[in-house]
Amino acid sequence: MMRLILFSAFILWTSLASAQKFMTEEGKAVFLSEAPLSSFEGESDYLAGLIDLEQNLLDFYLDLNTLETGIGLRDRHMRENYLETEEFPFAEFTGKLDDVPSLEMNQQMPVKAIGKFKIHGVEREIEVNGFLTWVSEDEINLEASFEVLLSDYEIPLPKLVFYELAENQKVTLTANLKKTQ
User: Which residues does UniProt assign to the signal peptide (predicted)?
Assistant: First the structure.
């Protein structure tokens, strides 16, 4: 019985080690704007991404036209006047893990990624802190967060009080990534 358990564990470990590319097209991105007179969230369930543990490569992108705040007029103004999604439709992060973790089943491992974040036509190097969890033989879970200063990316702040927007946006990403062949 012990041999069977050890053999099964070995098979699981080698299957993760041999195919270390994981992808998603259904991750979630949420931004939180906490201004003094107005707080709101925007979210999208269309975060796409890749984690390649063997090559130490991370690449995530989001079609900004899929962000929704719950108010259609605010969404339209956000896309047209501030994010300018006709010209700059995507936000993207490409980077590497500071240290590639040794993942164990159902154990959440802290990770730090360093790379380039691009939005509104401006690219800057950032650090993103998060967690990776190996949840099944062919799936890992990502949770990450970072902050975006709108002025760093030349995104103007609304002038109208009822559209008050914080300069600092808190961004949270969550995704289940499936192993690829």
Answer: 1-19
Long-range contact set of residues 79-85: C-beta below 8 Å, sequence gap at least 24? 81/156, 81/158, 82/155, 82/156, 82/158, 82/165, 83/119, 83/120, 83/155, 84/120
Annotate 106-116 with b (16+ C-beta within 10 A) or e (fewer): eebbebebebe
On whether the CB atoms of residues 93 and 58 are closer than 8 A, the answer is yes
pLDDT of residue 110: 95
Of the candidates 145, 181, 173, the one whose C-alpha atom is nearest the C-alpha of residue 46 is 173
Q: Name which of 36, 102, 40 is nearest 67 in CA terms.
A: 40
C-alpha 41/C-alpha 21 separation (Å) is 31
Is the pTM here over 0.90, yes or no? no
| Single-letter amino acid code for the residue at 120 | H
Q: What is the maximal distance between C-alpha atoms in the chain?
A: 70
CATH number for 70: 2.40.128.110
3 pLDDT band, cuts 50/70/90, is: very low
Query: Using one digit for the tens of pLDDT, what is the confidence trace for 24-39?
Result: 999 999 999 887 777 8
Counted residue by residue, the chain has a size of 181
Number of domains the chain is built from: 1
